[in-house]
Amino acid sequence: MTTNRRSGPHRPATIPDVAREAGVSRSTASRALAGYGSVSPQARERVRAAADRLGYRANQLARSMITGRTHTLGAVIADIQNPFFAGVTRGITDAARAAGYQVLLANTDEDPAAEQAAVKTLRDKHVDGLIVAPAATTDAGHLAAAHAAGCPVVLLDRDIPDLGMDSVTVDNHGAARDAVRRLLAAGHRRIALVSLVGDGVRDPAPVDPGSTGLARIEGYRSALREAGIADTDTYLRMGAFHQQDPADLARDLLAAPEPPTALFATDSVIALGVLSAVRDLGLRVPEDLSLVTFDDTDWARAVRPRISVVAQPVQELGARAVRALVSRVQGGTGEREHITLPTRFIARESVAAVPPPGG
Amino acid sequence: MTTNRRSGPHRPATIPDVAREAGVSRSTASRALAGYGSVSPQARERVRAAADRLGYRANQLARSMITGRTHTLGAVIADIQNPFFAGVTRGITDAARAAGYQVLLANTDEDPAAEQAAVKTLRDKHVDGLIVAPAATTDAGHLAAAHAAGCPVVLLDRDIPDLGMDSVTVDNHGAARDAVRRLLAAGHRRIALVSLVGDGVRDPAPVDPGSTGLARIEGYRSALREAGIADTDTYLRMGAFHQQDPADLARDLLAAPEPPTALFATDSVIALGVLSAVRDLGLRVPEDLSLVTFDDTDWARAVRPRISVVAQPVQELGARAVRALVSRVQGGTGEREHITLPTRFIARESVAAVPPPGG
DNA sequence: ATGAAAGCGCTAACAG
DNA sequence: CTGTTAGCGCTTTCAT
């Protein structure tokens, strides 16, 4: 009974084992198995057979140490429980697997410190690249550092132009403006917007100038201005400043003397809060309030009236980020790619027309 | 100008670099950095300083090759976009990070072949352990093999008793029976159940005897039998056999001559389909139909009436799985642990009382 | 407490 | 086409 280095049932077979079994050198075995260099058909066959017999599985750790590639991607997002990120992550994992990569997942809850920690840990694990939905567009030193050190980064959902990295986003400003224009076209003038802007994790919660939330707010403002509405902020509510619940924000808005006739929510979580407030107040959608939200979640199609939405191509966002990243990982050295995917306004039954005054 | 092996800005510092900078041997540097063996305080300090100066970060790949530990866990689930799994995954990643582990994520869409492939890939990456929500409770050879080879597996959501692995589940049978009992207590006799049983990916879709879906169905049946309802399957609909849409199943059920007065959905995705059918038919909840579902998703609290649910402790499910797994990884060799977490019935407004006939 | 040397499993130059 | 020789960066006996 020989004493094995490892106790336990069976020490996994290694290249030397296979080589011995096949009667060739380790190099030949390695070449045959990994499929590089040149090996005679006979040798290749004998190695394959030997490997099969021994149940050989390559040690990816050892291989990674040499090649410098782990075939692992890091995904750093805010919160997997948010349907937007769940969809994005699904797109990422599917596209990654299709390209022969696995993905390490990290949630940040929009906390920049958590993001930095996550990036550090993932780099220590030698991910081949990083997909990051940045919590803040300022203080991106950790991303720049990763990129500079040869760990490509693709920005998702939010771009940070100064960094000069590939990015995959939607046109938040344009999409919001378009949605509000539709509300205006239906005759609405008192249109509210409820946003969380950066999700208000930190206390003073300065508004991140590059956040999607702000872009959506600006799109909203610009549509209002186009329509000759000068005071664009009367019906604007941002939760980050006061860490308020979207439902409270909505209640506040709807209880005012001159309440809005339409409301635009900057994401589906907010819309849910709004919806709940609306129904608590005994108001009806769309008769008393028209409602539009970013993100086409499952429930938006199931409630009655069905909710009109600005749909983002969530899975595609993730998939494109992976493709851009993988092409960088594999040496792609072309121009910085800024992919902007189209959003789609899906008109359903949550928007009613307001008769023009004196009509 | 010396020629570096690696091109690029700066070759990352290694142990030899730090050792040289600190004027000690590699062994001492290694000990000081990784914190084992014994090192004099002075040496430790100098090494730390040198490492700092050089921006040294340990190569986890190399370390893993020696120690045999990657501090990475694999999570194999059905679909991250399903709110149940999103919550579970959130619990997994949070608990893992807290314990010093990262997680590799794989979706299977309930496809056993995809699950096998995922387990294989993750094992090749040398995860320290696996959390698996098994697609099928038969054909679990790949799980048994992993376990036998020293890669601990914790089963999540569904147990497979024969395997003798740790598991974290809820009492699906009991929870379903309890929910149906409440419906019965409210006076309902014609209670429907809509289930997908294994999600119907495969065509003939044999019902997996160990699936959560079947347990919930059995709980339903047993509550009905208790109440003296002999024919338990009149209002039972399983989608897997016909790959039907839950909304279609519900429409079919509700359009019958003697429609059910209450309906129990075995998960939130089904409930959404049911809800949409109910509203399309112009029926009201709960006046025309009482509704209860598994899983307390965001929308169940936001719609009106709010939906009564069987809430599962989703994050806790994930967190407990991680804790059980980590303790195995770290050598815990105790009894097999079968953790059953409690569900909670949350009564809201979607269940109405039916006056007893002739009352 | 420290250093020298061996080696994890694999790939990559370099001969032949 | 194949084998020999190094060596990735780290930990770990084993001496000293």
Report on this model:
The structure is a homodimer of 359-residue chains. With 359 residues, chain A is α/β, with parallel strands linked by helices. Chain A has helices at residues 15-22, 26-34, 41-54, 60-67, 83-98, 112-124, 141-148, 172-185, 212-226, 246-254, 268-280, 298-302, 314-329; strands spanning 72-77, 102-107, 129-132, 153-156, 166-170, 191-195, 236-238, 262-265, 290-294, 308-311, 338-341, 344-346. The first copy, chain A, has three domains: 15-58, lambda repressor-like DNA-binding domains (434 Repressor (Amino-terminal Domain)); 71-170 and 314-341, Rossmann fold (3-Layer(aba) Sandwich), CATH 3.40.50; 172-312, Rossmann fold. In chain A, the strands form two sheets. Chain A has a six-stranded parallel sheet, with helices on both faces. In chain A, strands 7-6-8-9-10-12 form a six-stranded mixed sheet, sandwiched between helices. In chain A, helix 9 links the parallel strand 6 (191-195) and strand 7. The interface between A and B is large, with 54 and 54 residues.
Characterize this entry briefly:
Two copies of one chain form a homodimer. Chain A is α/β, with parallel strands linked by helices. In chain A, 41% of the residues lie in helices and 15% in strands.
Topology:
The structure is a homodimer of 359-residue chains.
Chain A: H1 15-22, H2 26-34, H3 41-54, H4 60-67, E1 72-77, H5 83-98, E2 102-107, H6 112-124, E3 129-132, H7 141-148, E4 153-156, E5 166-170, H8 172-185, E6 191-195, H9 212-226, E7 236-238, H10 246-254, E8 262-265, H11 268-280, E9 290-294, H12 298-302, E10 308-311, H13 314-329, E11 338-341, E12 344-346
Parallel strand pairs in A: 1-2, 1-3, 3-4, 4-5, 5-11, 6-7, 6-8, 8-9, 9-10
Antiparallel strand pairs in A: 10-12
Helix pairs in contact in A: 1-2, 1-3, 2-3, 5-13, 8-9, 10-11
Chain A binds a DNA duplex (16 and 16 nucleotides) through helix 2 and helix 4.
